[in-house]
């Protein structure tokens, strides 16, 4: 971890920018699909999400940057009875899970300067999870700040010299932490616009 | 000059994006319960070592006590309005009879006594936008007429109905009867009492307690 941070710092400050494209800022709409424990809690996909990204090009085919995002997963379970020992609780259950990744990123581009420019990348950082199980006026809340990794693949499609369409498939994995004893992971399909300069 | 203006324009666009983002998040956040009845929760619990099947009779008071705290200070008890109280008692009786119990008078030494009570608690919530109050006017570029305003105050009242099944022969350490079954229904109250809603949660309390059936 420490070595990686040192390498990223060196790349940020020492490697000269040798590209017409200096940086990229992307605003992305994100659709999330829960996996593993998150999918067990809420199986419905999240259509509420967005990601903001900034990438600084250190080589024509390589960028370093950061991203922050948010997805909320939600399911209204309807009326049901839950029994624990000799106690039963009946009511409508509402489940929410908020995921907020904040990551340092590195991306490699296959066709820099081309109209269609596929890329693959890796992100690492933290992911905040807040899980709420609501019944009546009560809410059980569980929180965690995970150590998170995020591989991604995607492409940029140039619309104008300073504007590209952005499409990416990202897999977020937050390792066990805080109140959540199991890994929280989801796949997100991001579509948006990337402003370049 | 043109480049500078373009850069400024771009910065303003991005800043607006960032300002709009919290509104988008608030606007698309899932809302959860849509009606007061969606907040109804019924909880039941019982003594698993108690043999309900060996019991045959029960008694029930003709009024539902409203827990207000004044009984503790020596004032006479307060009751739920008669029309509503009668409806609650009738529904509880109907459920007990359906489970196989026979209703008797308290003087007939019933095996079980069903004790109903109700209470209301009101919660007041308030919110003031102090940030907007103090600093909002310093950001005219936000494109919204920021001015001081007092925020809002709202309140909601939660009603709770408690039903206890007591065996008068079973007492605790202090000599008071111990409940062998407890059912509680709770939900956000509206401006008028909804008997159907109350009947529904009473029915649910007995439905989710199959061990009461004789």
Structure overview:
The complex is a heterodimer of chains A (197) and B (214). By secondary structure, chain A is mainly beta. Chain A is built from two helices and eight strands; from the N terminus they run H-E-H-E-E-E-E-E-E-E. In chain A, strands 1-2-3-4-5-6-7-8 form an eight-stranded antiparallel β-barrel. The longest helix of chain A has 12 residues, at 2-13. In chain A, 35% of the residues are buried. The model of chain A is unreliable at 7-19 (pLDDT under 50). By secondary structure, chain B is α/β, with parallel strands linked by helices. In chain B, 30% of the residues lie in helices and 29% in strands. Chain B has four helices and eight strands; from the N terminus they run αββββαββαββα. In chain B, strands 1, 2, 3, 4, 5, 6, 7 and 8 form an eight-stranded mixed sheet that branches. In chain B, a hairpin with a 5-residue loop joins strand 7 and strand 8. In chain B, helix 2 (82-99) runs parallel beside helix 4 (195-207). The longest helix of chain B has 27 residues, at 2-28. Chain B is elongated. The A-B interface holds A 25, 27, 48, 50, 70, 72, 74, 76, 81, 83, 86-92, 94, 96, 134-138, 195 and B 10, 14, 17, 21, 24-25, 28-30, 32-33, 38-48, 156, 158, 186-188, 204, 208-209. Strand 4 (87-109) of chain A pairs antiparallel with strand 1 of chain B.
């Amino acid at each position: 971890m420490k070595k990686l941070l040192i390498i990223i710092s060196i790349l940020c400050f020492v490697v000269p920018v040798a590209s017409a494209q200096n940086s990229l800022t992307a605003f992305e709409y994100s659709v999330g699909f829960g996996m593993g424990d998150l999918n067990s809690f809420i199986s419905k996909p999240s259509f509420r999400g967005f990601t903001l990204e900034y990438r600084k090009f250190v080589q024509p085919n390589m960028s370093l940057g950061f991203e922050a995002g948010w997805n909320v997963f939600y399911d209204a379970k309807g009326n049901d009875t839950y029994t624990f020992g000799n106690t039963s609780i009946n009511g409508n259950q509402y489940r929410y899970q908020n995921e907020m990744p904040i990551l340092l990123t590195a991306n490699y581009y296959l066709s820099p300067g081309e109209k269609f420019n596929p890329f693959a990348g890796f992100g690492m950082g933290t992911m905040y999870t807040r899980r709420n199980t609501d019944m009546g006026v009560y809410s059980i809340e569980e929180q965690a700040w995970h150590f998170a990794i995020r591989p991604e693949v995607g492409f940029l499609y140039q619309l104008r010299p300073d504007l590209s369409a952005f499409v990416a498939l990202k897999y977020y994995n937050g390792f066990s932490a805080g109140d959540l004893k199991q890994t929280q992971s989801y796949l997100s399909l991001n579509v948006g616009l990337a402003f370049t300069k | 000059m043109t480049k500078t203006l373009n850069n400024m324009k771009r910065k303003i666009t991005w800043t607006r994006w960032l300002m709009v983002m919290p509104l988008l998040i608030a606007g698309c956040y899932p809302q959860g319960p849509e009606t007061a009845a969606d907040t109804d929760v019924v909880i039941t619990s019982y003594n698993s070592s108690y043999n309900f099947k060996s019991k045959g009779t029960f008694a029930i008071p003709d009024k539902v006590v409203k827990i207000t705290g004044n009984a503790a200070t020596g004032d006479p008890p307060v009751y739920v309005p008669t029309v509503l109280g009668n409806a609650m008692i009738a529904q509880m009786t109907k459920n007990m009879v359906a489970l196989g119990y026979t209703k008797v008078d308290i003087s007939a030494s019933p095996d079980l006594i069903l004790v109903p009570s109700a209470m209301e608690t009101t919660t007041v919530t308030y919110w003031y936008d102090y940030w907007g109050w103090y600093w909002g006017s310093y950001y005219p570029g936000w494109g919204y007429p920021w001015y001081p305003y007092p925020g809002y105050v709202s309140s909601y009242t939660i009603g709770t109905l408690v039903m206890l099944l007591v065996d008068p022969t079973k007492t605790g350490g202090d000599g008071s009867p111990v409940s062998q079954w407890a059912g509680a229904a709770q939900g956000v109250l509206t401006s008028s009492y909804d008997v159907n809603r109350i009947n529904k949660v009473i029915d649910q309390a007995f439905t989710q307690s199959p061990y009461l059936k004789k």
